[in-house]
Amino acid sequence: MKLDNRKEHILDFIVRDYIATAQPVSSGRMALRRVLDSSSATLRNIMLELDEGGFLFQPHTSAGRAPTEKGYRYFIDNMIGKPKASSNFSEFSADALGSFVNDFAHDLGIFASAMITGEKNMRELAGFRDVLLEPEFREEDMLENFGRMVDEIDSVMGEYQKALIKEDNDYNVWIGRENIYPGARKGSTLVARISMPEENEMIFFAYGPTRMNYEKAIFKLKNLIDEI
């Protein structure tokens, strides 16, 4: 389903604003920010249409709107570009890998892991504290599921790697209930396979709330692919 330009513009604003603030977005806030240069009433009507289409939901009766999993999926598939994970690294040190994973996790407030399989056999994990600062991780079941996922991270990454191979994809984002690993279904995962010399392969895995900054995450991943 392709949205018209006005609905896309409003969905884009709501997704970005909610990612930044973790607060539902009201029509009044959008009117103050001069979104579409429209009145609160006009914006409210468009938001209602997006709500009815399953792209937004209202967390509380008096609140504004927040993106649904369907809203995030539309944002990722239609509003931001995807990297092409086909790099061919000549050298990639453990220090460089660790630096990237730490920077990625800290900058985005999410958990990240990278593993190079084959002769090099390197792995880095980062972001434990960063992700736990996100408000979504105040929920006890989120904490328990996250802890279990970290304990099982090798097998978890392996399952997502198999899914990418089966789909013949180098890269994907799983949002909420799309996730393969049951314990990740209240958050989102970003996974990429990156070819390396001598039949080595890097698997990059990131996990955070569904409210993660997808655009920034994809941009940073693209920089890794393009520049290292």
Automatic annotation (TrEMBL):
Cited Pfam families: HrcA
Residues covered by the Heat-inducible transcription repressor HrcA C-terminal domain: 113-218
Gene Ontology molecular functions: DNA binding
InterPro entries: GAF-like_dom_sf (IPR029016), HrcA (IPR002571), HrcA_C (IPR021153), WH-like_DNA-bd_sf (IPR036388), WH_DNA-bd_sf (IPR036390)
GO biological process: negative regulation of DNA-templated transcription
Keywords annotated in UniProt: Repressor, Stress response, Transcription, Transcription regulation
Protein name: Heat-inducible transcription repressor HrcA C-terminal domain-containing protein
Annotated source species: Candidatus Giovannonibacteria bacterium RIFCSPLOWO2_01_FULL_45_34
